[in-house]
Amino acid sequence: MKPLLAEINAQQLLALTKAALHGTNPDENLFVSVSETDWNELFEHSAAQGVMVLSLNGAMRLPKQLQPPLQVKMRWIVRADTVEKHYRHCLETAKELSDRFRENNIRMLLFKGVSLSRLYPAPASREFGDIDIFLFGKSEEGNVILKCLAGKNRFASKKHSNYSYRGILIENHHTFLNQNDYKSFQHSNYLEKRLMALLEKADSPDETDESLLFPPPDFDALYVTLHTFAHLSSRIVLRQLCDLTVLFTAYKGKIDFSLYRNTLSEAGLLKLTDALISLSVSRLGLNPEYAPPYESDLSLENRIWNDLLNPEVPAPPKEKRTLLNVMIYKMKLLRSRYWKSELLFPGQYGKRILYSTVNYLRHPEIIKKVF
C-alpha cells in the first residue's frame, strides 16, 4: 500500500510540478531538509499522480545541493527516459496511421494524450498510454484498415474499437462520450452534438506538423473538462489538473468562454467545472486571466483535492488482499464515491452498483483485482 501523501509532500510535489509547467524555480525552503527516503517517497507519489517527468524537470531547477541524491535521480531519469521514448514512439505511430488513412481518403483526428502533449512546455513530459483517434464518420472503414495493420479487434465498446499496433493500444472512437449507460452524463447526447459541431473548425493540419490533425481550442476545452469528469467518478490525479492548466494557458484568447460555460451549465456540470478551474488556479498556478470565469466553492474544492491526494478508502496492502478483504474494500469504495456519482450522474448510483455486481458475476476473475 502506498504511503499517504502528507501535506509537506503535497507542497513539494506541487512546487516541482508548477516549476516545470511555468518555467519557474521551486521554493527552495521546501527542500532544505529532504532526506533520500523523502525523495524516494516523492518519486513514488509523482508516478502515482501521473507527473513523474514533470516533477523531475522541476527538481532539476533546484540548486544542485538541493536536488535529489544521485541514486534517486538516476532512478527518476531512467523512468522518465522510458516515458519520453514512449512519447516519440506514439508520435511516429500516429503519423504512420494518419498517412495510411489519408491514402484511403479518411481524415484522422488525434485527441487526448498525444494531442494534449503538444501544449506542454516539454511535450514528452505529458504521460499517456494509448493513441485516441476519430475518423469523422468513417470509423468502420478505419476498422478495416486497422484490422489489416493490427489484426483482431482486441475488444469493442459502444464508444470505440481497440487495436494493438506496434505495441500501442489504438482507440478508434465512434463517439467521444458514453451514451445511454450508467456512465453517461445526464445530457450526454446534447454534449456529443456540441462536440461534433465544434469539430467543424478542425479543417486544417497542425501548424507544426502538416501530417497530423488536432482539435480546435473550443473542442479541447470542453472535451478535456468532460473527460476529467469521467475520471472524477472514480478518482482524478494531478495530471488531469495539469492538463487544464496547460490547455487554458496555451489557448489564451482562443476559447469562447461564454460558449464553454453555457454548454456545461445546460448539462448541469457548471458547479464541478468551477471547482476544477478554481483548483487549477489555486494549486497549479493557472493565471486567472487565462481561465474561464468561475465561482469558488471551497468546500467542494477541498473535498476533490483531498480525494485526489488521499482517497477516503485506501487499497489494502498486497499481503492482505484476500477475497473477503477485497470485496469489503470494493463495497466501501462504491459507498465512498456516492457523492461524486450524484454530482456527475444524478440518479444513476443504483445502476452503477447493479452493473458492478453483474460484471463480477460474469467475470469472477476480476473480483480480486484492486485498482
Task: Describe this structure as you would to a colleague.
With 371 residues, the chain is mostly helical. The protein has 4 domains: 1-68, no CATH class; 85-174, Beta Polymerase, domain 2 (2-Layer Sandwich), CATH 3.30.460.10; 191-311, no CATH class; 316-371, no CATH class. It is 54% helix and 6% strand. The chain has 15 helices and 5 strands. The protein has helices at 7-22, 36-48, 52-59, 70-103, 113-117, 139-150, 188-198, 217-232, 238-250, 257-266, 270-284, 298-309, 323-336, 338-344, 349-362; strands at residues 109-111, 131-134, 155-156, 160-165, 168-173. It has a 5-stranded mixed beta sheet. β4 and β5 (168-173) form a beta hairpin. It starts with 6 loop residues before the first helix and ends in a 9-residue tail after the last helix. 32% of the residues are buried.
The 3D shape can be described as globular
Overall SS class? mainly alpha
Q: Which H/E pattern describes the elements?
A: HHHHEHEHEEEHHHHHHHHH
Proportion of strand residues = 5-15%
Query: Gyration radius, to the nearest Å?
Result: 21 Å
For the biggest sheet, the summary is: 5 strands, mixed
Continuous helix count? 15
Number of domains: 4
Number of strands: 5
| Strand arrangement across the biggest beta sheet | 1-2-5-4-3
Distance between the termini: 12 Å
Mean pLDDT: 88
Poorly predicted sequence stretches spanning 5 or more consecutive residues: none
